[in-house]
Amino acid sequence: MNDENLSAFYSSLLTNLQKKGRRSNDVAEAVNKYQGLVQKVKDHGDRLSALLVSKRRLTEKKSVERSVHAETSTGEATPDTKWPSSLVTKKIKYQYSTKQKYSVPARRYSGMDGAQSMSRRLQKHAVDPHTLDLDIHNCAFQVLHQIIQKTQPKPALPKDLADVFEEVTTKRAPPENLKKNEAMSSLQKISLYIRWVAMNLLYDDYMSLKENKDKTFPSASIMSLMWQSVEDMIVQAWAEHVIALKPKHISLHFDGIRVSKEVASNVESHIEECQEVIKEKTGFTVSIVRKTHGTFRELVAERGAADEESDFSAESEKATSSRKHSEDPEAPLVIDDGILRMLEDEVKTLLEQAKKPKHPVNGRHQCPGCPFRSFKERRRLRTHLEKYHVLKNQYVSSGTKQLKVILALYDHAASSQQTPSNLLQKSASLIRDSVKPPLPASNNLIDKQIRLIHDAAGPRYVNVCQLEDELHVRRVRNRYYTKAFGDLILKEAVLCYAQADELQHLCFIKVY
């Protein structure tokens, strides 16, 4: 989709939200969100337009090169083709914001045609091929921690909070107690303390922020000003060192720098050198890392390669997946041993119940473990349980589709921190309730008579005859889906910029 379609889509959502009357907080938040998205799409288009330059024909110095381009002009490109470079040189002026005057410098901003103002998707294509994106890792925490150490405010940060602050700023992953949200109150107290320090160090600036009606949280703004002023000093020293290397490209990106690849043939050595220069000139110790920007296709390919190379132990495999089966939908489905034991115990319980006298329903005895199988005589039900609900069939006599429902029920219970139970009976009941009209009571195997339909209201199994007579569905190979489900996928894909992980999460929330 292009920017006009995206802008029209977000504007239509805004039109539906901007109705007369008093807005609720949720509606006001949604309006602000979509207004920001419309502006972001517009800015993206403006920045892209600013990058466009008039193309001019380049004259090659060698006749051999001219002949290569002559061949490629007819569309006969070769793997060794050398295309003319489309790189251009631009001098960008960086300025501090003039919206609010401060006693210390904050961040520097470029114009619309600077690399700093480009989106990550645009940087991927415009500057990523010939530059390195280097950033200060965890910049705010690293700088704030050292500011507290250097200024030594009185009263000092309490020891327990100082330990938490130290752990958060020096480790990539949060400590175990933070993962369980047990120390969130400690982080809130640390934030309050740092804001108090910033208000005292930059008192005049804080008072001017309090008088600004547009600043609704002046204590947070002054804390940002404090660490961003140090960040600017660090980037200034860093940039001066890199400029001395005479790179063909350098651009400032707030807490990092983009620099030509030729000045950093050995990236690790270059990063260590820059860290030492920053320490020497500013007194602050920072950790610089290289950022990479992958397209959706590249990230999928990288994830697939990582999955192929991973060697999971038996314990990790058991913890991360309840199933062991081929990605081929036609391949046999094999259930985890733990689930098989649960199904075995359930079948034993059903056999014990079948030995007790019970009145038939509508003249038949329903098998609790099958969606539709039933019998006129109770002894035949017992024979069926003993003959077909066995390990050879993974205790399921109806086929693969009921096995898939069992796995889904097990995963749902595990993710909800519940103990799975009666998987055989629950899966049979789900299929029995959704498939209308019901299948013949004499059929054991039902896989060829039902189909899974993906719908916006949730997945469900239906009778094959419904596909032809009543339902209007679309088919992709062996998958059927409704128009409502397709609309849901398209809508959520637009809202999350087609990011696969987020798209899957949003669709799961909508459906379930």
TrEMBL record:
Biased composition annotated in UniProt, kind: Basic and acidic residues: 315-328
Stretch list, region Disordered: 62-83, 306-331
Protein name (Swiss-Prot/TrEMBL): Uncharacterized protein
Species: Symbiodinium pilosum (Dinoflagellate)
